[in-house]
Amino acid sequence: MSLAGRHILSIDQFTRPDLEALLAVAQTLEPVARRQYRCNVLDGAVMANLFFEASTRTRISFHTAFSRLGGRVCDTTGFTFSSISKGESLEDTARVIAGYADAIVMRHPETGSVAQFAKGLRVPVINAGDGTGEHPSQALLDYYTISSEFARLGKTIDGMTIAMVGDLKHGRTIHSLCRLLRLFRNITFHFVAPPALAAPQELLDSLKTAGHHVREFDSIASGLPGADVVYATRIQRERIEGGEEMEGYSEDYRINHTAITEYAPKDIIIMHPLPRDSRPGAFDLATDLDTLPNLAIFRQADNGVTMRMAMFAMALDVHKDIDRHFHKWEGYRPRRYSDSDADFYQFD
Ligand code: NCD
């Protein structure tokens, strides 16, 4: 399938060859993400980055990705500064922005709203998260992360075991990643959450129908053994009625250094879409893991720029032209981004 001019609204629109094509383009763009080369293949193009819900890395990495390919970005954040607060319909806003920009990225708190916005538009729209629905670009960058971490370890996605921990009910990153992994073969899913935060039954059923193995656990002590990847998520308090209610989430679900040492295989990859909730009592991924090379969360966030560049290059049909627009960067560039980065994460 060609992505040229197409919206990216759900992982369900991709086949496995589509994923592999995106991965190949992302790999070509790696030297740009690593700042060895500049690329101006999107010179003259404009992207509208519309975020109606809180975001740091998704908004900035979409912006960075488009800019690193030589394009310009217009941003709008929140409802307050948008004409939607004057009663404008999504449809009217959509038609207007399509007249201004070559690509549109949108995050919105209501499930289905980005698809409603994109309906009938001839300018590609990328869903950057719609309520508890989907977050396709996150799943694609998670796929890129698992593939590159596994390449180092000599593992394959087919046949792997992944433990998913946290708010599996409201977490759209979990929903999109499960839909993506469904396209592979023979995956074992360990879902670790209290009943009130369990993954939707229809999602579990669709994984089973596709031939995967689904197991549910009520603690990480039982859910971590045998896992190649653990994917932790934040409790989505803003989507839970009563807000602060943790719905049975306790210390038993917390992934920290002790839990990883006691229950997980030595080479487990630890992922999280971020942000992690560092407030006391949140029981999110612990910071005592930060010195472990297994912790892939910052490499995962870095991969967001690479994968989003690939998405733009394909949606605007310039991916075959990329190398012609590479220019060696002669200025300063870091060999790694931080002192805490693992030794294998160096850019030469
Ligand atoms: C997630 C999101 O917004 O869905 N973050 C992200 O995009 N990287 C996860 C979250 O908010 O917990």
UniProtKB/TrEMBL annotation:
Binding, carbamoyl phosphate: 57-58, 107, 135, 138, 274-275
Aspartate/ornithine carbamoyltransferase carbamoyl-P binding domain: residues covered: 6-147
Transferase keyword on record: yes
Start and end residues of each Aspartate/ornithine carbamoyltransferase Asp/Orn-binding domain: 158-314
EC numbers: 2.1.3.2
Catalytic activity line of the entry: carbamoyl phosphate + L-aspartate = N-carbamoyl-L-aspartate + phosphate + H(+)
Pfam entry (one): OTCace
Gene Ontology BP annotations: 'de novo' pyrimidine nucleobase biosynthetic process; 'de novo' UMP biosynthetic process; amino acid metabolic process
Residue numbers binding L-aspartate: 86, 172, 234
One of the record's GO molecular function terms: amino acid binding
One GO term describing the cellular component: cytosol
Keyword match Transferase: yes
Keywords: Pyrimidine biosynthesis, Transferase
Source superkingdom: Bacteria
Pathway(s) it belongs to: Pyrimidine metabolism; UMP biosynthesis via de novo pathway; (S)-dihydroorotate from bicarbonate: step 2/3
Entry similarity comment: Belongs to the aspartate/ornithine carbamoyltransferase superfamily. ATCase family.
Role according to the record: Catalyzes the condensation of carbamoyl phosphate and aspartate to form carbamoyl aspartate and inorganic phosphate, the committed step in the de novo pyrimidine nucleotide biosynthesis pathway.
Subunit details: Heterododecamer (2C3:3R2) of six catalytic PyrB chains organized as two trimers (C3), and six regulatory PyrI chains organized as three dimers (R2).
Protein name: Aspartate carbamoyltransferase
Species, as recorded: Cardiobacterium valvarum F0432
Gene: pyrB
